[in-house]
């Protein structure tokens, strides 16, 4: 199986992580902030064929650049419909009613299950807590999972915005992420890459 390459782009005022995954000449993006210029340039310069954009959750710093990617590369967008209620809330409450035009892109609703992406198995994990519709994307062969704002290095996602649920977030991490192989790399929505074993041992929210 061809190797999956992961490139990280730190973008936007919230310093969110956007991820470019590629195998050969095909690529997908996971999350894209509202300033995707470097990401767009990299796709063009490398001559990559963008086959899809996957959104972890509908907070502006993770989907603000998706419309531009969709329009420029005609790539389909995949996301959970569970965060649709955020369309009606202002930015300060975790919504995007003030920036509704940025969310004006078609997307295919997806939920938990197995997909083939870039010739590899990708498991879509239902991981609510930060938002009700939060998803994580796990590539078993490559040993990596993309968690959005569910879990960070020695931290967890906030749950004080509408739809946040601390009990659900904790359960998502324990029952979806911490059951993955210990050496699985965790690519979060903010901050550096970490691993399952590192978070089991060091994350203060779970350390016994």
Quickly describe the structure:
The chain is an alpha/beta fold and 208 residues long.
CATH class: Alpha Beta
The whole-number mean of residue pLDDT values reads 92
* Strand coverage percent: 25-35%
Shape: globular
| Rg over C-alpha atoms, rounded to the nearest angstrom | 16 Å
CATH topology, by name, is Metallo-beta-lactamase, Chain A
**Tally of domains:** 1
Largest sheet, in brief, is: 6 strands, mixed
- Any idea what the CATH superfamily is called? Ribonuclease Z/Hydroxyacylglutathione hydrolase-like
Overall SS class: alpha/beta
Strand order of the largest sheet: 1-2-3-4-5-6
Report the CATH architecture.
4-Layer Sandwich
Number of strands: 14
Number of distinct helices: 5
**Sequence stretches where pLDDT stays below 50 over 5 or more residues:** none
How far apart, in Å, are the first and last alpha carbons? 39 Å
SSE order: EEEHEHHEEEEEEEEHEEH
Helix content: 10-25%
Provide a descriptive summary of the structure in words:
With about 210 residues, the protein is of the alpha/beta class. It has a single domain (about 5-200), classed as Metallo-beta-lactamase, Chain A. It has five helices and 14 strands. The strands form three sheets. Strands 1-2-3-4-5-6 form a six-stranded mixed sheet, covered by helices on one side. It has a six-stranded mixed sheet with strand order 7-8-9-10-13-14. A hairpin with a 4-residue loop joins strand 9 (about 135-140) and strand 10.
């Amino acid at each position: 199986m061809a190797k999956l390459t992961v490139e990280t782009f730190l973008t936007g005022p919230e310093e969110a992580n956007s991820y470019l995954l590629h195998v050969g000449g095909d690529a997908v993006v996971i999350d894209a902030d509202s300033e995707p210029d470097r990401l767009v340039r990299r796709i063009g310069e490398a001559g990559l064929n963008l086959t899809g954009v996957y959104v972890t959750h509908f907070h502006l710093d993770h989907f603000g650049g998706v419309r531009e990617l969709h329009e420029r590369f005609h790539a389909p967008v995949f996301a959970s419909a569970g965060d649709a209620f955020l369309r009606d809330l202002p930015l300060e409450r975790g919504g995007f009613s003030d920036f509704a035009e940025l969310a004006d892109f078609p997307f295919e609703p997806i939920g938990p299950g197995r997909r083939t992406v870039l010739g590899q198995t990708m498991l879509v994990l239902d991981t609510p807590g930060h938002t009700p519709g939060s998803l994580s994307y796990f590539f078993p062969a490559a040993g990596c999972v993309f968690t959005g704002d569910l879990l960070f290095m020695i931290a967890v996602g906030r749950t004080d915005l509408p739809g946040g649920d601390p009990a659900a977030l904790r359960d998502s991490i324990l029952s979806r992420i911490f059951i993955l192989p210990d050496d699985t790399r965790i690519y979060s929505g903010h901050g550096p890459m970490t691993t399952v074993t590192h978070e089991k041992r060091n994350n203060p929210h779970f350390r016994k």
